[in-house]
């Protein structure tokens, strides 16, 4: 069975602090895709990144960076110099690549990030 | 490029009433998904369409939920009759089916419909 665990339910930081959101996944597929989505108070899920299981290079996009480690089944997300606009719920998700997989996303419970001014 | 459109944004109904949600995916996107997001949880897939055919509806409560995607574009999700536990946000997503396998696609989400069942 596939599973995504985001152990941090809520995180509160002060603006300009760095913050890391943890994501641990379980899958038996050798090929799979990992995603991060942001859900601001408006409710829409905003796509942030997609990573396939064969690409373990870390990625940086502005203040955002992602650390993918297959050895620990983790795909963590770091925001550097956080801003109030980063306040949202962040979801990690998994999509398997096996013959029975249809592309559906398996989501974690989400981590609520509050950035205080 | 316009995103995924959903309506209504909010709906309040009494239990045992019926309700319908509408979704218009991103133009040209072949795959459409309906997810249910209960407060405090991650979204859970209800049904997935590839063009106008159902790919996965294994988690759709078929005794009360139904969905269709006529002509492979817009989709409607219906609940009849609604129960208290159906209170949730219903999210529609679409993906372009760029890859040979569906799992390679990125899904883009609409703003959702927040349903409250009293």
Task: Give me the oligomer status.
Answer: heterodimer
The fraction of residues assigned to DSSP E strands of chain A is over 45%
The dominant shape of chain B is: globular
Chains forming the largest contact: A-B, 27 and 29 residues
Measured between the Cα atoms of the first and last residue of chain B, the distance is: 37 Å
Q: Given the helix and strand composition of chain A, which structural class is it?
A: mainly beta
Estimated structural class of chain B: mainly beta
How would you describe this protein?
The complex is a heterodimer of chains A (117) and B (118). Chain A has 117 residues and is mainly beta. Chain A is built from no helices and 12 strands. In chain A, strands 2, 5, 6, 10, 11 and 12 form a 6-stranded mixed β-sheet that branches. Chain A has a 4-stranded antiparallel β-sheet with strand order 3-9-8-7, with no helix packed on it. With 118 residues, chain B is mostly beta strands. Chain B is 0% helix and 47% strand. Chain B is globular, with a radius of gyration of 14 Å. Chain A binds chain B through residues 4, 32-33, 35, 37, 42-47, 50, 52, 91, 93, 95-97, 101-105, 107-110, and chain B through 31, 33, 35, 40-45, 48, 55-56, 89, 91, 93, 95, 101-112, 114.
